[in-house]
Amino acid sequence: MKKLFLSIFLFTGALVQNVQLLAQEPQSEFVPVTEIPASEQLPSAPLVIAAYAFVWLAFAVYVWMMWRKLGKVEQELGALSAQISKPRTARSDGIRP
Amino acid sequence: MSAFWRVVWIVAKKDLAIEARSRELLNTTVFFALSCVIVFSVSFVGEGGDGRALGDAAAGILWIAIAFSGTLALGRTFERERYGDTLRALLLAPGARPAVYVGKLVGVVGLLLATEIIIVPLVALLFQARLFDHTLLLAALLGFGTVGFACVGTLFAAMLGRARSRDVLLPILLYPVTIPVMIAGVRGTAALIQPTPQLDMARLWIMLLLSFDVVFLTLSLWTFESVMTE
Amino acid sequence: MRKAFVPLLAVAGFIFMTAPILVTRAPYESTMGLVQKIFYFHMPPAMLMLLSAIFCGIISAIELIRKRPVYDWIAYAAAELTVLYGALAMVTGPLWARKAWGVWWVWDPRLTMSLLLWMVFVSYLLLRRYGGPGSETLAAGLAVFGMATSPFVYLSVNIWRTIHPLTTVVPTLPVDFALPLWYAFTGFLLLYIALMTLRVRIEEQRALVDQLYLESEE
Fold this sequence. Notes:
By secondary structure, chain A is an all-alpha fold. Chain A has helices spanning 2-23, 45-85.
């Protein structure tokens, strides 16, 4: 009984393997082409758009950051010069008697 | 001219004397370089099963170990000066300032060369790399590469003097500028340990290292004067 | 000089707005097709990064000799702009390379050295920001070293075998390619000058603020 099952099992295994082999025909040679079909090629447009967009964005961000810095510094400057032009006694140094 | 070299000798001798007594820098630098080499060799051993490292890894690991331990050594060379406040005294000395720079440079190069004498055989051993088949070319690569690295390193370490965050700033400033030296050193060493050594390539890289040394040394001598503000 | 900012910005802005028109009208390149159009926004920042690095180095050298604060302001601005333009070149380049060479990045001499140059000036900015007092002089020394690497970057494609296009491409450009290129280059250059004036003005005002703080404590 055991021997029967074993032989059926082995036979089925061999059959299945052969079927699998037949299903995928191995490639016998590589065939060159000069033009890749358009579906396989990397699309250029997103790359070009990304490049230009990055440049504009980077400049915009930089100019905005600098503008803000300038605004802050000039504000500080204005506040300081207003404070300095006040008479000495009105200033709250806290150091001088 | 001889006054220049006298100052160089005095500065270098001072460092050497201090070092000979405690050997602190030498021991710690060598041990750090050893640890570097071992950590990297463990990381780069291939999956082949016989425990061999990947192709040209030996060349890269050697130079990385030199760069890292060199950076530490540079930091601590000037740390010593800062503690004793000797840098200001040195700069007030009647010798030319570039002489002080060259004196420190000689000390740093000496320290690094001593480290390499210990590290190079170890790398050759760990990676089965036939580094000593062309000892003269290897010595030229290591010599010129070390001088180039130390040139820039000594200048930057001296410049950073009392700057804030100087410990982390030294590698940040040093590595981008000295990576060309590292590239030349690594590719030259790799050319030597190939199965069929490419001696012409190695000589080409040695020439490149020499030109880097000339450029960096000249620039460092020019800028040391103006940059030391102590 | 400071008055020049707004007009410069306006002209540069106009050039940037109209450049795409010229770019679209330019012919396609035979092997690279559409993606080659990135060239018009890649080459100017790359070239200006190199020139800016050299400019920063020269100004820093003068600063070390003359030690007047205005040179320091200009050098700081030049370093910042080197980093900005370098970032533009380093992003547009790989976007182009992905299509033209199939990879985002290769470690060939031109790319490696450009990256190193860019990193030197990033470390300049880090030093200025975190180095504390006295870092202006140290940074100036660093910039001089950075400048020394510039020529190597430009010549690297001619000396070593590399995948990056050679320096002979730009001088031999046919007019149809050259026109949009130099138009875009002018835009980038004018914007560089405009940003420089803005940045120097910020530094100038900052120095004034520091001076006023000192005065107000007397």
